[in-house]
Design goal:
This is CNTLN protein. One of its GO terms (cellular component) is centriole. It is a single chain. The two termini are about 125 Å apart. This protein has helices at about 1-25, 30-180, 185-260, 265-275, 280-285, 290-315. The chain is rod-shaped, with a radius of gyration of 64 Å. α1 packs antiparallel against α2 (about 30-180) and α3 (about 185-260) packs antiparallel against α6. With about 325 residues, the protein is an all-alpha fold.
């Protein structure tokens, strides 16, 4: 369009010059050069017009393409907005899932801690049950022995009863004989009285022996109770000693590991820096762990509870 306007301006100038030249008398006829230039300019105009028509057609096609692309862009923008909404929804879902995951992980941690505590309790209960089973077995053995002794005493008692029944029959026979003969009655009475005294003595002696045996059994029961109490105390004491030995062994192992890690020169250097002797430095290093002390306290309290239970059982039975 700019070239067309330039050409049109040039044509107007040429026309104006031709008009001015026609008016002037010095040049009565237009020159051939001006005509040729006019023709060239007209040809250029035609070419520019053709190019303009072509460019207009291309512009229309480009406009159509631009409209199609704009529609496509609108569709894509709509899709992008939908996708952004979907992304926001998915982000919210992911955040919810993350929160659920955190909650589930915390629940798993708590459940694992409870499981560990329950397993520890089960182990301690199993150990307590094994100890109680051994004590129950020993008590059963003592009871079996006591029942055997009781059965023996019952047999002896039944034998004594049978003997007394037989002697009662003899007494009845003697009484019938006393009725028959009054003379022999005095002699038989004296003999019978002697026999009765001896039987009474024998029965009294048998009762005394039975009472002594009962006292012995009660003393044995008391001895058994004292034995159980002392045994439980000794068990507690030995367990505490073993625990202290285990702790000392652990400490010695840790100290050995520390000593193996630290050379003697480094220990001396640390003592010289702290202005302390090597023995004091070892005492400083030998610090009890708070967790171990807490565990020791808990175990000591459990042992106390166990002793109290045994004392209650011994008082009840």
């Amino acid at each position: 369009q700019q070239e067309k306007e330039d050409l049109q301006g040039k044509l107007k100038l040429r026309e104006h010059l031709s008009q001015t030249a026609g008016k002037s008398k010095a040049t009565p006829a237009p020159s051939k050069n001006i005509d040729l230039e006019m023709k060239q300019l007209q040809c250029k105009l035609k070419n520019s017009n053709n190019e303009i028509t072509k460019q207009l057609a291309t512009i229309k096609s480009l406009k159509n393409e631009v409209q199609e692309k704009e529609e496509r862009i609108r569709e894509l923008q709509a899709k992008i907005s939908q996708l952004e909404r979907d992304v926001t929804v998915k982000r919210h879902l992911i955040e919810d899932l993350k929160s659920h995951l955190k909650a589930s992980q915390e629940n798993e941690k708590t459940s694992n801690e409870t499981l560990e505590s329950l397993e520890k309790k089960v182990k301690t209960l199993a150990e307590d049950c094994s100890g109680k089973k051994t004590s129950i077995d020993s008590l059963k053995q003592r009871l079996n022995a006591a029942t055997k002794e009781k059965s023996q005493y019952e047999q002896m008692y039944h034998k004594a009863k049978d003997e007394l029944g037989k002697k009662d029959l003899k007494l009845t026979k003697l009484e019938s004989k006393m009725i028959e003969t009054e003379c022999a009655m005095t002699e038989l009475e004296t003999a019978a009285s002697d026999q009765l005294h001896s039987l009474a003595k024998q029965s009294a002696e048998a009762l005394e022996t039975l009472q002594k045996k009962l006292l012995l059994t009660s003393e044995k029961v008391e001895e058994f109770k004292t034995f159980v109490k002392t045994l439980s105390r000794e068990l507690q004491h030995s367990i505490q000693e073993l625990r202290t030995k285990i702790r000392k062994a652990k400490k010695m192992g840790k100290m050995k590991a520390c000593k193996n890690c630290l050379s003697q020169e480094s220990v001396q250097l640390a003592a010289s820096i702290l202005n302390v002797s090597t023995a004091d430095l070892e005492e400083i290093l030998d610090v009890e762990d708070e967790e171990e002390t807490a565990k020791a306290k808990m175990e000591f309290e459990k042992d106390k509870e166990w002793l109290q239970r045994i004392q209650k059982l011994m008082e009840a039975q």
